[in-house]
Predict the structure.
Amino acid sequence: MNARDATSTVAPVDAAAEIRALLDSLDRELVGLAPVKQRIAEVAALLAVDRARASLGLPGTPPALHMSFTGNPGTGKTTVALKMAGILHRLGYVRKGHLVAVTRDDLVGQYIGHTAPKTREVLKRAMGGVLFIDEAYYLYRPENERDYGQEAIEILLQVMENQREDLVVILAGYKDRMARFFECNPGFSSRIAHHVDFPDYTREELLRIAQLMLDRMGYAFDDAARAAFERYLGLRMAQPHFANARSVRNALDRMRLRHASRVFENLAQADRAALSTLAADDILASRVFQSREPS
Amino acid sequence: MRITQGAFSFLPDLTDVQIRAQVDYCLQQGWAVSVEHTDDIHPRNTYWEMFGMPMFDLADAAGAMVEITACRATFPEHYIRVNAFDATRGWETVRLSFVVNRPANEPGFRLVRTEGPGRLQRYSIERRT
């Protein structure tokens, strides 16, 4: 009895330390997203407390872990889903902790009788981990009543309900379209416990993200380049189709291209600094600045 | 008569927990698991009916258990086996195969004698009815 008591108090403490470490790494690696981190911390705490309660024999219901991530493109939904899979795995709520990311095409078939096996196949692959359905609202096409998406939804709902311990489903997409999707499919919204909204990044956050990305790629801005990039961000954010962190990454990739073609001209003389420093010219050559001039 | 084909067949029938553990082992080795069934248990019947596709890139045994359960529900009176295929170069073969379902009543086999030329006896076995 003594031995059992000892283990049952030690285990939750270990888990708490581990969760804190996980959340810290989340904090370090993801810029901004305060409400999202808050939500994840709450979920993690709930799971850890449930664990602790179960180990002392207190009654508990298995938690519903299906989630919906809503937000504009490039706000880190997929990245957070990946982290979430890791967290749930550490907490022991999914056995393998892998993430299977799919879209409508992977679930819905092209002819009668094609959808069910296809959906089941994906579900089987995702079992023991997290199934991430990107742009989930495409599953439901109200304008076509014979659309096979409905069949996929039904199978999905059935598995979400009956095999909760085998798989966690995360739906992701734009906020307004997801809201409409949930309205049309009340079965989904009642089975999803956690609705997490991803806010857009501010300019300062995007700058920090750019800095993180550059560090990871082994590049740096010089002072002029940093100022130019700040201006670039301001202009780009006002343009249509701005996809937050994704746009920043694409912009950095294009800057690397310009940097490379500039350095390539006298590659023999290029030293370490020249190879890793992005100059203002690399940024100012962007089309974003040119499109300002005619208007 | 209890049919002894495949691994573990001299042991008592595996429970679902044991089957899951075996499948998990197979997946850890990187083998692809598939489910097959037959009502003709003759030892020369190597090719059983496939139940669904072989499950490549499965991560967890839960997926295979779904298939096994579905197969049992469809063919409760058939023999059902789980195969684990190793695609590694040089192996490229089934590494583990075991029966996970058998009918309640197993009649077994009887000996059949066939007379050949010059009083030659040929022997084979036939399913008892």
Remarks:
- The first strand of chain B starts at residue 32 and ends at 38.
- Chain B touches chain A through 13 residues (CB under 8 Å).
- Chain B has two helices and six strands.
